[in-house]
Amino acid sequence: MGRPFTFTNEPFSLLFLFLLPVVTQGVFDYRDAVIKSLLYFEAQRSGHLPYNQRVTWRGHSGLTDGLDQGVDLVGGYYDAGDHVKFGLPMAFTITMLAWSTIEYADEITESGEFEHVLEAIKWGTDYFIKAHTHPNVFWAQVGDGSSDHYCWQRPEDMTTPRRAYKIDAENPGSEVVAETAAALAAASILFRKSNPHYSHLLLHHAQQLFEFGDKYREKYDKSLGIVKGYYPSTSGYGDELLWAGFWLYKATRAEKYLDYVIKNAYTLGGAGWKISEFSWDIKYAGVQVLAAKLLVEDKSASEHKEILNQYKSKAEFYLCSCLNLNINNSNVHWTPSGLLYIRRWNNMQYVVSATFLLTVYSDYLQNSNQTLQCPKGSLQPHQLLSFAKSQVDYILGSNPMNLSYLIGFGSKYPNRVHHRAASTVTYKEHGEFIGCSQGYDLWFGRQKPNPNVLTGAIVGGPDLNDEFRDVRGNFMQTEACTYNTAPMVGVFAKFFRLEEENGGARLKDSSK
Predict the structure, then answer these.
(1) Is the residue at 2 inside a domain?
(2) Which positions ≥6 away from 152 have C-beta within 8 Å?
(3) Which residue out of 211, 298, 470, 500 is catalytically annotated?
(4) 214 is annotated as an active-site residue
(5) Is 157 marked active-site?
(6) Which one of 42, 65, 82, 316 is the catalytic residue?
(7) Closest listed residue to residue 373, CA positions, set 322, 333, 319, 295
(8) Which of 40, 68, 89, 377 has CA 20 to 30 A from 121's CA?
(9) Are 142 and 66 in contact (CB under 8 A)?
């Protein structure tokens, strides 16, 4: 479950990237990580499950979502261990899963998982199309966190209210509609060859949603107060509007979208904000990396070089902050063993998003024959990749706990994940109804491992001292979210390809 960001970071003792040992102990099976990560999305599915569902301990759920409001909202994803369908993090999940696939399509294909990643994306985009019932209407949420959290039930047994909440012209919400526009635009790129009609449909909805979000500008948590306790918009809507604008430009190459992100670069904060976090709430660092990539990948953007370079400078502030090479206490904390640390509630979400941007930017620097210039030193592309690998390998088990934070990967991983469906006997094995409080009595408080393995989930992870308690009630550490796993699909595939091609040599020599 998400929590808001802050614009400042507490000081951390200076660690130089140059002295960070490259993690080489043991070669992880990165292909297996790709395969397992995509299974997690099947476990999070809401709606009528397809015939080829591989996570067999899940069943159909939420089959009447939207019925009371006269709209079909069956489908989509549960964000974490509960059963609310939160629009903002769901859309961010799909945007990041699509971006991850766009960047590393060849690598994911080589791993044999390209069809599965498209299925995962389409499960989300199909739902967004349903939720966009009118050009200026978007159904942003189904269920509410308060009533949902009183119950510990399987999704197949849900008795909590399933009221749907919408955004419209009278009650606008720019963040959620713009993020959904970004997700649909990014996905349209992936379906362009295999399903051009669907790609066109996605783009049609993306353009309408963007126009809606831009015309009726308002914070979505002001219109939908029910989201404030779970996914409030601390950063406002400027980042989402720019984010959607960049993705629509990538998907269409229409000059009006490029003009939008250039003309609004400062008024919406993209070329102005220096941020040390990238998350479901704040996308500025992602926006800034997309802008930097345009300088190399798109010749038509050259006339806007000055503004794009301002975006780029802010992207590099974020990366230097992660690498502890900024000044004035603007660096991200590291744990004693080198894991990025932002805050104790689901810290791993910030680790994976940073790891993704570091990996993508390493490719960008390599392709453009550049280095990263930080206040405390410059870095070669392979040094960014080396640091990204240290984060990946920490997640997969190279850490003081010798624990994989990717569930189901390796021989040791958390087995008491804070997740209603995984922690309760399956509907297929025990078809009797499990009530709201009955689930707490019989399943939540059990000391035993979960009966179902939530394969591919990345949990909240260790604290600032690299310590982790595998306790179901320790939700800050043991709950997983879809946006934890989404950015890592392509990253895992990237390192799988490198291991295949180079036997790890390029990475093992990267400290030289």
Answers:
(1) no
(2) 420, 423, 424, 436, 437, 439, 440, 443, 444
(3) 470
(4) no
(5) no
(6) 82
(7) 319
(8) 68
(9) yes
> For residue 4, is it within any domain?
no
Helix (H) or strand (E) holding 362: helix 348-368
Distance separating alpha carbons of residues 479 and 347, to the nearest angstrom:
11
Q: How many domains does the chain have?
A: 1
Q: How far apart are CA 395 and CA 465, in angstroms?
A: 15
Q: Domain for residue 11, yes or no?
A: no
The range of the structural domain enclosing residue 339 comes to 17-508
Annotated catalytic residue 82? yes
Q: Tens-digit pLDDT profile for the chain (512 aa)?
A: 443 322 223 322 334 444 444 333 447 999 999 999 999 999 999 999 999 999 999 999 999 999 999 999 999 999 999 999 999 999 999 999 999 999 999 999 999 999 999 999 999 999 999 999 999 999 999 999 888 888 999 999 999 999 999 999 999 999 999 999 999 999 999 999 999 999 999 999 999 999 999 999 999 999 999 999 999 999 999 999 999 999 999 999 999 999 999 999 999 999 999 999 999 999 999 999 999 999 998 888 889 999 999 999 999 999 999 999 998 888 999 999 999 999 999 999 999 999 999 999 999 999 999 999 999 999 999 999 999 999 999 999 999 999 999 999 999 999 999 999 999 999 888 888 999 899 899 999 999 999 999 999 999 999 999 999 999 999 999 999 999 999 999 999 999 999 988 765 444 433 32
CA R_g for the chain: 21
The single residue of 83, 418, 419, 499 carrying the catalytic annotation is 418
- 156 counts as catalytic: no
pTM passes above 0.85: yes
